Amino acid sequence: MLNGKKVVFSGVQPSGNLTIGNYLGAIRNFGAFSEEYRCFYCVVDMHAITVRQVPADLRRRTYETLALYMAAGLDPAKNTLFVQSQVAAHAELGWILDCFTMFGELSRMTQFKDKSAKNADNINAGLFTYPTLMAADILLYQTELVPVGVDQKQHLELARDIANRFNGLYSDTFVVPEGYIPQNAMKIMSLGDPGVKMSKSDSNQNAVVYILDSKDDILRKFRRAVTDSGCEVCRGEGKDGIGNLMTIYSCFTGKSDEEITREFSGRGYGDFKTAVGEACADGLAGVREEYARLMQDKGYLEEVMRTGAASASAAAQRTLGKVRRKLGFVTL
Ligand code: TRP
Question: Dihedral of CA 226/222/17/240: which sign?
């Protein structure tokens, strides 16, 4: 609790262009919490450097990710929007939690195994301890609820284990957070292979729709989406491609599966794909415009960062002070 409100925390890495998967599965839903909860949304640039980044790109994407948060509807007056590296408490608690996390636990993290396979020439210690920094992000704010994608469930479980371990050793210090995976967990799949999650690192860029893609690109990508040899717009065995398009269409139009099936009955896949592309492009138009406007105003984005960092830092210091005292650190 923070000033009588439960706390929500989530983070997005500024490590690439965000896809409609990030938008529909995460960012778009963040705003819904702002009335009832005290919300912290963080651009996790320290997590991003676990893989090599070009400094100028990292800097630009940090602004971009913040601008996208705001363009997607997060009002900085109602949410604390901030950049992780601008609040030193994250690094401090990250180190402390390293000392309460076991080598064996971190070795079992599937994201670590995946990322080390992909970055075999740079399996650095930060990649290994990534989940403890994430636990620090969450635990610093006495977070109750963490909206995340399914792929982050294991990291969240670890954060809970670390919190429980610390609380057990030093008496109650951290709130033990719950993951919040949206009920209808909008998992958006690749347009090229509906068996895998849509990911910015897909080697087939036609299979990935970015929030900032132009309308033409969006329409083209949906026209090329892999489907099946049938012609009915419905879910079913072997129809994962169509099912994925139905999910996306439904996210942008609010229509149910039955309504969609009825709408496209007898019309074939071509019409449907065009309609999904149109709905997606139109649904994102407002976000794209607002984003472009915000990116013209670095001064304003920096002001949001500054206010956000100050407010996050004040909240984080309360937890960090408690942790320092319990550990036996001398505080002057
Ligand atoms: N690891 C998350 C991801 O890649 C990003 C993240 C970092 C995060 N810290 C967090 C998410 C804290 C939720 C809470 O998606």
Answer: negative
Grouping H, G, I as helix, E, B as strand and the rest as coil, residue 145 is strand
197 is catalytic: yes
Average pLDDT, the chain: 94
Token pair of 220, please?
């083209």
142-192 per-position pLDDT tens digit: 999 999 878 899 999 999 999 999 999 999 999 999 999 866 556 899 999
Instruction: Determine whether 115 is an active site residue.
Output: yes
* pLDDT band at 25; cut points 50, 70, 90: confident
Nearest CA to ligand 1 atom 13: 10
Contact 271, 243 (CB under 8 A): no
- Laid out side by side, the sheet with 178-180 consists of 79-83, 38-43, 7-12, 145-147, 178-180
For the domain 205-292, what is the CATH superfamily, name and number?
A: Tyrosyl-Transfer RNA Synthetase (1.10.240.10)
Q: What is the pTM of this model?
A: 0.90
Architecture of the domain spanning 7-181+298-327:
3-Layer(aba) Sandwich (3.40)
